[in-house]
Amino acid sequence: MVLSVLRQAAAGLRVLLLMTVLCGLAYPVVIWGVAQTAFHDQANGSLVHAGGRVVGSSLIGQDFGGPLWFHPRPGGYDPLATGGSNLGPSSARLLAEVRLRRSSVARTEHVPAHEVPPDPLTGSASGLDPHISPEYARQQVTRVARAHGLTEQQVRELVDSHVQGRTLGFLGQERVNVLRLNLALAAKAG
């Protein structure tokens, strides 16, 4: 009887060791290798380099303040605290924030309040969206061109060259990555 229990325990231990090697070592190494080979940029965080150093990720928004830069969506962009505000469409607080943001953007960009697109008014669901609409980027052209001493046409062409189409041609909307656009702007402005 004791011998039978010891054989079963030994068999169980062999299966445990085999599964540990297969599932705990071999499988992760294979998946890591495939990711590094086929999806190297994505597997490493979609890092953006400028001047020989990492300046951010193309997947995570960053704050850009002041008149020199294209502004992202509101949110704060804390990668350790992601998520929306949980304020719904009937929230008086959300409505007050949207009104405040609308008047602020209208004042900053010198446009009528009713022409402010939705993306500068509300944060993204994750709080990390790195993109803005082409409409919002174009709305910022005058301010950014003036701040950098460039012509509006130069900056508008820069925006247009950074418009990304819909994913797979039919998912989502056209968008502009604010980090990549601001890096191109910095390079153009010198």
Main sheet: strands, sense, barrel:
3 strands, antiparallel
The arrangement of helices and strands along the chain is: HHEEHEHHHEEH
Distance between the termini: 83 Å
Number of spatially distinct domains: 2
**Arrangement of strands in the largest sheet:** 3-5-4
Rg, rounded, reads 25 Å
Helix count equals 7
Percent of residues in beta strands: 5-15%
Structural class: mainly alpha
| Whole-number mean pLDDT | 90
**Could you say which overall geometry the principal axes of the C-alpha atoms support?**
elongated
Number of strands: 5
Classify the helix fraction into a percent range: 40-55%
List low-confidence stretches: none
How would you sum up this structure, described in words?
It is a single chain. The chain is elongated and about 90 Å long. The longest helix is centred in the N-terminal third of the chain and has 37 residues, at 2-38. The chain is mainly alpha-helical and 190 residues long. The chain has 7 helices and 5 strands, in the order H-H-E-E-H-E-H-H-H-E-E-H. The protein has 2 domains: 2-40; 45-189, no CATH class. A hairpin with a 2-residue loop joins strand 1 (47-50) and strand 2 (53-57). The strands form 2 sheets. It has a 3-stranded antiparallel sheet with strand order 3-5-4. It has a two-stranded antiparallel sheet with strand order 1-2. The protein has helices at 2-38, 40-43, 92-109, 134-139, 141-148, 152-161, 178-189, and strands at residues 47-50, 53-57, 131-132, 163-164, 175-177. Helix 5 (141-148) crosses helix 6 (152-161). The mean pLDDT is 90.
